[in-house]
Amino acid sequence: MTAKIFIDGEVGTTGLQIRARLEGRSDVSLISLDEAVRKDASARRDAHAEADVSILCLPDDAAREAVALIDDPDARVIDASTAHRTADGWLYGFAEMTHDQGMRIADARRVSNPGCYALSSVALLRPLVSEGLVPSDFPVTINAVSGYTGGGKALIERMENPKAADAISSDYFVYGLGLEHKHVPEIQVRSLLDHRPLFVPSVGRFRQGMIVQVPLQLDALPDTPTVDAVHACLADWYRGRTFVSVADPADAAAHVAQLDPEALNWTNHLRIYVFGNAKHGQAVLAAVSDNLGKGAAGSAVQNMNLMLGFAETTGLEEPLKAA
Predict the structure, then answer these.
(1) Are both 135 and 155 inside the same structural domain?
(2) Which of the residues 78, 116, 283, 292 is marked catalytic?
């Protein structure tokens, strides 16, 4: 079977990464529009109708408009924008979120690809809330740093072109301090939290890679769980999964001095670490991933594989290119 894939928005950062992951495969063929008609509604409608799976790599409003172009309610669509991540009728495309989420994605017609920060945050929080170690009404704080490609073409230009009118010269900056980051609603909903988490993102001067951290004062949690109990909950949840893994205590100890946000670049992997100090009753959960890999394009390809009945790992076994 050769499946036809239309990436609507293939020239954007995520679209280019998805295309690069699919171009060498013999089980899919790409529908691509000439530049002259790339934004033409009629041409796009025809491409969506021809595709076995459409992948939307568009701004939110444009993604909603693209869905309106798709006449067949049974057409399979993956939306990489924020537009449908908490919307009715759309399944959240984090295959490892629950034990049956991958099977649900395989049967779905509308799948919303997670945001990069959100996927890591949900990966850390969902198991702990589900198993009762973190109450659903707990005041959660999330800190994160991402490579600048997460900001798309505009931020890439500002970081890489010193002659840009609004060029950024600093090596690190915090943003989103109005506390309205677009990933927060999906983090709250998919982590089963009663209240909005306090989310503080930042950007470093590196192209891609990400660390998301959730600090925990263990004595503020019911029954004061130990560091080992937190680790065991996460390890049990993700045991046997290909793309999400939990570092054992020895591995975590080896990264105490320095955790590298670029360690999993060009892959579809997410690695969870539990750092803790039993004497002080404190823990920090950390998730490392590629914001363009598992945080975007990699997840989209993984979801596409599931929806088409391919092996989940197809095209994702090896890094996209040497980091």
Answers:
(1) yes
(2) 116
Residue 76 has φ and ψ, to the nearest 5°, of -95, 130
Tens digits of per-residue pLDDT, 283-295?
A: 999 999 999 999 9
In a domain, 313, yes or no: no
What are the tens digits of pLDDT across the range 4-55?
999 999 999 999 999 999 998 999 999 999 888 888 899 999 999 999 999 9
- 57 belongs to the catalytic site: no
Strand order in the sheet with 91-92: 28-31, 3-8, 53-56, 76-79, 110-112, 91-92
The answer to whether residue 183 sits within a structural domain is yes
The tens digit of pLDDT for each residue in 64-102 reads 999 999 989 999 999 999 999 999 999 999 999 999 999
The reply to whether 221 and 283 lie within a common domain is: yes
Residue 85 resides in a domain: yes
Q: Are residues 174 and 152 in the same domain?
A: yes
Has residue 323 been placed in a domain?
A: no
